[in-house]
């Protein structure tokens, strides 16, 4: 008897068939829920796209540059003007606004879901032990796999792209929120408890403000992952810059694909720097509030004399 004959062959575990049955059951019994979710997401994306396209490209560029100036400073404002002007000059303004709407809706949904889960995981070891393997699964599963059930549940369009993006982008928000709250100095929490502060106020007045840099880092990573899904979402008819890049790939059109990629990079840098600066607070606001008032300066001068 050879070694091959002696080897024991394990029976096949039909994991794929089980998952297919679960998807079929959900499609048959929860169609009302998916229809409601799909309608809400589609309305949000269409409404935000309409808002972004109300102003002409130059007008919206100036608005975005003003936001960048207040939040981050003149360097990001200058990049905003030059970068979005380049996007408009490549005739990719409308696809860029479609992608921006998709990313913002996906990031908003991911943030609303991720932060409460991260807070619950930080306050309960049991929740943390349950959530951690789920997050590992969500992060390591190839992003293309999420599109399969999303298409079954929501058909073709922007909705499956948003749903797949939310699932793919949410884990960093949960992890960094939990990490930030767990990293708060225990003495600060004990001081609040010593003064009889309720747990809810300790969370909102002490833990969340001190953990805000970590939470904002999670939101930043969440937005970056959402942008990385733009091209993949284009495969299910989400449109936007993902559709432009996908069309360039299908036609082997290097110029079209490269221009779509450059537009994605402009959006990514803008959103990355903007959310990164929010962790420290708006730069112009910091300058206003840290500048000494005239009365305080005069008193300081009198005291010095």
Commentary on this structure:
- The chain is mostly helical and 305 residues long.
- Helices cover 84% and strands 0% of the residues.
- The chain has helices at 3-6, 15-29, 31-52, 57-71, 74-89, 93-123, 125-140, 143-154, 158-182, 186-194, 199-228, 230-234, 240-250, 254-278, 283-290, 294-304.
- Helix 7 (125-140) crosses helix 9.
- It is globular, with a radius of gyration of 24 Å.
- 33% of the residues are buried.
- Mean pLDDT is 80; it is low at 283-305.
Summarize the structure.
The chain has 305 residues and is mainly alpha-helical. The protein contains 16 helices and no strands. Residues 283-305 have low confidence and may be disordered.
| Chain-averaged pLDDT | 80
What's the total count of β strands? Answer: 0
* Main β-sheet description: none
Distance between the termini: 102 Å
Structural class: mainly alpha
Give the percentage of residues in beta strands. under 5%
Order of helices and strands: HHHHHHHHHHHHHHHH
The geometry reads as: globular
Low-confidence residue ranges: 283-305
Helix content, binned percent: over 70%
SSE layout and pairings?
Elements: H1 3-6, H2 15-29, H3 31-52, H4 57-71, H5 74-89, H6 93-123, H7 125-140, H8 143-154, H9 158-182, H10 186-194, H11 199-228, H12 230-234, H13 240-250, H14 254-278, H15 283-290, H16 294-304
């Amino acid at each position: 008897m050879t070694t091959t004959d002696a080897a024991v062959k394990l029976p096949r575990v039909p994991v794929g068939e089980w998952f297919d049955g679960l998807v079929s059951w959900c499609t048959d019994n929860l169609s009302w829920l998916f229809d409601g979710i799909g309608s809400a997401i589609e309305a949000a994306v269409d409404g935000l796209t309409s808002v972004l396209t109300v102003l002409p490209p130059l007008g919206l560029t100036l608005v975005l540059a003003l936001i960048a100036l207040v939040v981050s400073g003149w360097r990001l404002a200058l990049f905003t003007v030059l970068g979005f002007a380049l996007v408009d000059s490549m005739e990719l303004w409308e696809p860029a606004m479609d992608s921006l709407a998709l990313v913002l809706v996906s990031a908003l949904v991911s943030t609303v879901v991720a932060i409460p889960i991260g807070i619950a995981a930080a306050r309960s070891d049991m929740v943390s032990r349950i959530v951690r393997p789920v997050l590992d699964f969500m992060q390591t599963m190839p992003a293309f796999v999420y599109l399969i059930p999303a298409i079954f549940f929501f058909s073709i369009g922007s909705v499956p792209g948003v749903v797949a993006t939310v699932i793919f982008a949410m884990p960093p928000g949960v992890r960094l929120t939990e990490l930030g709250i767990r990293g708060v100095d225990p003495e600060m929490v004990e001081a609040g408890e010593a003064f009889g502060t309720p747990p809810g106020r300790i969370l909102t007045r002490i833990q969340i403000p001190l953990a805000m840099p970590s939470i904002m880092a999670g939101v930043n990573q969440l937005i970056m992952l959402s942008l990385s899904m733009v091209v993949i979402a284009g495969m299910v008819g989400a449109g936007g810059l993902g559709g432009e890049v996908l069309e360039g790939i299908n036609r082997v059109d290097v110029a079209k694909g490269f221009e779509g990629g450059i537009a994605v990079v402009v959006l990514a840098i803008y959103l990355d720097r903007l959310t990164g600066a929010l962790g420290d607070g708006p730069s112009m606001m910091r300058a206003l509030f840290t500048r000494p008032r005239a009365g305080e300066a005069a008193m300081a001068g009198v005291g010095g004399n």
